[in-house]
UniProtKB/TrEMBL annotation, chain A:
Keywords: Carboxypeptidase, Cell inner membrane, Cell membrane, Cell shape, Cell wall biogenesis/degradation, Hydrolase, Membrane, Peptidoglycan synthesis, Protease, Transmembrane, Transmembrane helix. The lineage of its organism: Bacteria, Pseudomonadati, Bacteroidota, Cytophagia, Cytophagales. NCBIfam families: pbp2_mrdA. Residues 51-212 form the Penicillin-binding protein dimerisation domain. One of its GO terms (molecular function) is penicillin binding. SUPFAM superfamilies: beta-lactamase/transpeptidase-like, Penicillin binding protein dimerisation domain. It comes from Hymenobacter crusticola. InterPro entries: Beta-lactam/transpept (IPR050515), Beta-lactam/transpept-like (IPR012338), PBP_dimer (IPR005311), PBP_dimer_sf (IPR036138), PCN-bd_Tpept (IPR001460), Penicillin-binding_protein_2 (IPR017790). Residues 254-579 form the Penicillin-binding protein transpeptidase domain. GO terms for biological process: cell wall organization; peptidoglycan biosynthetic process; proteolysis; regulation of cell shape. It is found in: Cell membrane; Membrane. One of its GO terms (cellular component) is plasma membrane. This is Penicillin-binding protein 2.
From TrEMBL, chain B:
PROSITE patterns: FTSW_RODA_SPOVE. One of its GO terms (molecular function) is lipid-linked peptidoglycan transporter activity. This is Cell wall polymerase. InterPro entries: Cell_cycle_FtsW-rel_CS (IPR018365), FtsW/RodA (IPR001182), RodA/MrdB (IPR011923). One of its GO terms (cellular component) is plasma membrane. It comes from Hymenobacter crusticola.
Length: 610, 430
């Protein structure tokens, strides 16, 4: 029997092996594998995000433009609805039996266990009427949230709108912290300043048991953070001027931009046709958005920043300034109004100096100005000479903020185009083109694209005699100033004295006898104005009317550019419109009621039908 | 009877007693933590008795108190009584199981609980020590090595009758415990082949569920072929044997499905499926296993601290103070605490084996081995199921799990051994 005693070791070994396997397995799941800790947190920790109060938006005179308002959604969890007294429910909720049935059916198709809205956007008084009765209806609850409310019916394109985050936006690392269905700025300032307006989310960690019942704060709230309200935006918009501009542009397509040249602040940015910002908020917003999107006139299009067009004759100013800087012309240079080079606008006196040329907007004059600037004999080959000349000319033109994004605080900005030599190489082949190919650029036509914002900025640059501040909508964030990039001067390549040399001609446009922009004159109020008309040829229909100006000449307070599609000669519509805006801004009121009554309405009336 | 109390106390194995009380105390702490609710009134002294009786931790105090009384009774009884009345107790237990089967109301699908007023007892718990006494007695009266076939049959009958009755009452888990007796029989001379064959059968069953059957058969055939090549002379003599082993294994591999689908009940089948893949039944049995692993796994190295466990406290783990009490240990005391519990069990088992080996009688030694084997089986299956290494079988963790029946049963099991041990010197006369 003695040999059997050895078997005790076998039994001990079996015990020991099992114990060691357990020890090792426990070490693996408790110490090495972290996934169980995460799973435990997922089980018990509920993360409740508190959306902060969104920042408000003001105009330059501290008028409130956008604020928040509480709205309430009546939510229903279909599975929890028990013994619903439909008659009483209808009476309390002010709904018909059909509405309730339909609503419950829709909610059920969404989810039986998750809350979905039965009635959205209840106002506070409506809520008060039903709140006390809610306890009698299990499965129904109220969910409060903040929605945007607008104190203005204007400025919709600039303000933008707030909507739920889309799956596409969720992919963007910028929005990594956003939860599905969370609201955010979807366009305009709401989108550009999302981070500042949003504020900082508060997070509460709550522990819940297996049935989802709250069991108190996690570690006494050690990890909870309070939400920080978003910062208010103080825009540079003068909402009265903005509203006035939108009224004048009613019935037309086009844009108006008014700047304060001294700061680059945008006073007004009109995009026509416009819409009421309140349209893109509240119940049925999605449908209304689709309506706007599908309209032929494209009201959602932010034209001042997003619609580059050939600038027309206004560009002659830039052309002249670049040539003056290059020294290929002087203010006293005269060129014949030679119609064989290019057709002129009308018969006029001999352009013996730059002022007469500007006043009459003489096309052949500026054709010849550009030719001197571009063809400087850098190469024996005339075509190579134009290539080299165009490249240098383009560099100087772009120093006015043309052909590239200005850096406006708006996501929808486009670059426009000042064509490169390579652009024509591609079209016609290397050395396959000459000055005759590109001469349209001299009068702001052809392959050139400039936005109304860029055009207004050119006028602000002329008003400042050589520099500009990047145009911007927001002059103050919270208690601070604008973003730092808006406090830097950008100098053009053109010396200040050359600006002085063209301004008298621009004044002649408005106040000189026979000037193209005489309708814009504010001489009766003692306000001096420098401007330039433009009429942009349009292969698809009537010419586009433009006018750009600044005033007062000696101490510029406003620079403006107006672009009206298919309104014909710039002097007839765009010039008086700009003039009214300047009058409104500088004098605070408008006395020239005749113009004010004539301008609103369709653009057709300004076009002479032959 | 002891000649004097002092001599008697000297002969009691105080080390085992110490480990026992340490385990019962730690068990109570964890039952308290598992049934503790932060919402409940903090001052237990302000509660009335009937209010206190709602708490498992309070009732466990009563069970521990009665267990102490039980211990005194067990060691005061003449040690010879256990030997003498072994068969009588066994008969009484069988009768009790039969009565239970007839009169018990089904509770959670099993007819295994006897209700005596407010107290509920599970007779299956007491079948363990009575059966252990009976088979030890039988082992002592015959010699296993020289037993006749009839003796073998009687022993098998003694061992199998209680589990069959328990299975009839739908408590399969408690019935499986009786497999533990094989370890004791092994020590007393049973052929190791039985253990090996059983282990191999278990391994084949698991492997057949885990890997494709043809691979398994292929691998086994190749293995056998290799053995044949290197021992061709010996193997040729045993060719029929080798072929029949091959046949049996292949038959088992392909029989697994039949066994699985036709012999096991649906809930048992599910428990094995879940062991292999916890996501097979994520909201049913898989839920238990997954949540149990999450609770233990989230404990980390040193645990979340006493009463700080969230998974157990917020009811994510089912049966948290009874069968899944180890989750509280793992979550609140971490790997260190879990290891302490495992080491405690190993120490207890080592001590019990030591005590068993020093018995002069076959009766005492066999009984000691039965005690160690039963405790070990519970330990292995219970902790194994909480960490996903064993199927979910509803048996308690000795001394830790909440419950009077299991505490009394394990206390009786252990202290009868200590009572016998205390008189081992007097056994010399026999």
């Amino acid at each position: 029997m003695q040999y059997l005693e050895g078997r005790k070791y076998v039994v001990q070994a079996i015990f020991l092996v099992v114990a060691m396997v357990f020890g090792a397995r426990l070490f693996y799941i408790q110490v090495l594998d972290g996934s169980y800790k995460l799973a435990a947190d997922r089980n018990t920790l509920q993360r409740i995000v508190q959306t902060p109060y969104r920042g408000l938006i003001y105009d330059r005179n501290h008028k409130l433009l956008v604020q928040n308002t509480p709205v309430y959604d009546l939510m229903v969890v279909p599975r929890e609805v028990k013994r619903l007294d439909t008659a009483r429910f209808c009476q309390v909720m002010q709904m018909t039996v059909e509405e309730v049935r339909e609503g419950l059916k829709t909610a059920k198709t969404f989810s039986r266990v998750k809350a979905s809205p039965l009635v959205q956007n209840l106002s506070t008084p409506e809520l008060a009427a039903i709140q006390d009765n809610l306890i009698d209806f299990p499965g129904f609850s109220i969910q409060a949230r903040m929605a945007r409310a607008y104190e203005t019916q204007n400025l919709a394109h600039t303000l933008g709108y707030v909507g739920t985050i889309t799956p596409a936006l969720m992919e963007n690392p910028k929005y990594a912290k956003y939860q599905p269905n969370e609201f955010l700025g979807r366009s305009g300032l709401e989108s550009f300043y999302e981070q500042q307006l949003m504020g900082r989310r508060g997070v509460k960690y709550r522990m819940v048991n297996v049935r989802g019942i709250e069991k108190g704060a996690f570690r006494g709230g050690e990890f909870d953070t309070l939400s920080v309200a978003g910062q208010d935006l103080h825009t540079s918009i003068d909402i009265d001027l903005q509203q006035y501009g939108e009224m004048l542009m009613a019935g037309k397509r086009g844009s108006v931009v008014a700047l304060d040249p001294k700061t680059g602040e945008i006073l007004a940015a009109v995009s026509a046709p416009a819409y009421d910002p309140a349209v893109l908020t509240g119940k049925g917003m999605g449908n209304r958005y689709m309506d706007l999107l599908n309209q032929k006139e494209r009201p959602l299009y932010n034209r001042p920043l997003g619609a580059p067009q050939p600038p027309g004759s206004v560009f002659k100013l830039v052309n002249e300034l670049v040539a003056l800087q290059m020294g290929t012309v002087s203010p006293a240079t005269g060129f014949p109004c030679n119609w064989s080079l290019v057709r002129c606008t009308h018969r006029h006196e001999y352009p013996s100096n730059v002022s007469i040329a500007i006043k009459n907007s003489c096309n052949p004059y500026f054709y010849q100005v550009m030719r001197t600037a571009v063809m400087r004999g850098r190469s024996r080959n005339a075509r190579e000479d134009v290539r080299l000349g165009l490249a240098e000319w383009r560099r100087q033109v772009m120093s006015f903020g043309l052909g590239d994004k200005l850096g406006v605080d708006m996501g929808s900005e486009t670059k426009g185009r000042i064509p490169k030599p390579e652009f024509y190489d591609k079209l016609y082949g290397h050395h396959g083109w000459n000055f005759r190919t590109i001469y349209s650029l001299s009068i702001g036509q052809g392959e050139m694209g400039v936005t109304t914002m860029q055009m207004a900025n050119v006028l602000a640059t002329i008003a400042n005699r050589g520099y500009y501040y990047t145009p911007h909508f927001v002059r103050g964030i919270g208690n601070g100033g604008p973003l730092p990039e808006y406090q830097q001067r950008h100098h053009t390549t053109v010396a200040p004295q050359h600006f002085e040399e063209i301004i008298p001609g621009m004044q002649q446009v408005v106040d000189g006898r026979g000037g193209t922009g005489n309708y814009a004159s504010l001489a009766q109020f003692g306000i001096s104005m420098a401007g330039k008309t433009g009429t942009v040829q349009n292969p698809h229909g009537a010419d586009h009317a433009t006018f750009a100006a600044f005033a007062p000449v000696e101490d510029p307070k406003i620079a403006i550019a107006v672009f009206i599609e298919n309104a014909g000669f710039g002097g007839n519509s765009a010039a008086p419109l700009a003039s009214l805006m300047i009058e409104k801004y500088l004098r605070g009121k408008v006395v020239r009621k005749k113009w004010e009554e004539w301008l609103p309405g369709s653009a057709d009336r300004f076009v002479k039908h032959h | 009877m002891p000649s004097s109390p002092a001599r008697y106390s000297r002969s009691i194995d105080w080390i085992t007693v110490g480990i026992y009380f340490l385990m019962v105390f730690l068990g109570w702490l964890n039952v308290y933590a598992a049934s503790y609710s932060p919402d409940a009134p903090s001052n237990a002294f302000s509660l009335s008795f009937s209010e206190l009786m709602q708490f498992n931790w309070f009732k466990q105090i009563l069970w521990i108190g009665t267990a102490v009384v039980l211990i005194v009774v067990l060691v005061v009884i003449d040690y010879k009584a256990y030997d003498t009345f072994a068969f009588g107790l066994y008969g009484g237990m069988i009768l009790l199981l039969l009565i239970t089967l007839v009169i018990a109301r089904p509770i959670a699908g099993s007819r295994s609980w006897l209700e005596l007023g407010p107290v509920r007892l599970q007779p299956a718990e007491f079948a363990k020590f009575t059966t252990a006494l009976a088979v030890s007695r039988f082992m002592a009266s015959t010699n296993l090595r020289h037993q006749s076939w009839r003796d073998h049959l009687v022993l098998a009958g003694l061992t199998l009758l209680p589990p069959l009755l328990i299975i009839a009452s739908n408590e399969t888990g408690q019935a499986l415990v009786f497999g533990a007796f094989l370890l004791a029989y092994f020590r007393e001379g049973m052929s190791p082949l039985i253990l090996i064959v059983l282990a191999a059968a278990g391994a084949i069953l698991i492997l057949a569920l885990l890997i494709p059957k043809l691979w398994l058969v292929g691998a086994f055939t190749v293995m056998l072929g290799v053995v044949f090549l290197f021992n061709s002379r010996v193997m040729r003599h045993h060719l029929p044997l080798a072929l029949s082993v091959w046949g049996i294994v292949v038959g088992m591999v392909f029989g697994v499905d039949f066994f699985f689908n036709n012999v096991l009940q649906p809930h048992q089948r599910k428990r094995i499926e879940v062991l292999i893949n916890p996501s097979a039944d994520p909201l049913g049995v898989g839920w238990n296993v997954t949540q149990s692993k999450i609770a233990i796994g989230s404990g980390g190295l040193v645990g979340k601290g006493f009463l700080e466990g969230t998974q157990t406290k917020f009811d994510f783990v089912p049966e948290q103070s009874t069968d899944f009490i180890f989750c509280t240990v793992g979550e609140e005391w971490g790997w260190v605490g879990s290891s302490v519990v495992i080491v405690l069990f190993m120490t207890l088992l080592a001590r019990v084996l030591y005590v068993a080996e020093r018995q002069k009688s076959v009766f005492g030694r066999t009984y000691g081995y039965c005690v160690a084997s039963i405790i070990f089986f519970h330990f292995a299956v219970n902790i194994g199921m909480t960490i996903g290494l064993a199927p979910v079988v509803g048996i308690p963790l000795p001394f830790f799990s909440y419950g009077g029946s299991s505490l009394w049963s394990f206390t009786t099991l252990l202290f009868i051994l200590l009572a016998i041990d205390a008189y081992r010197k007097q056994d010399l006369v026999r």
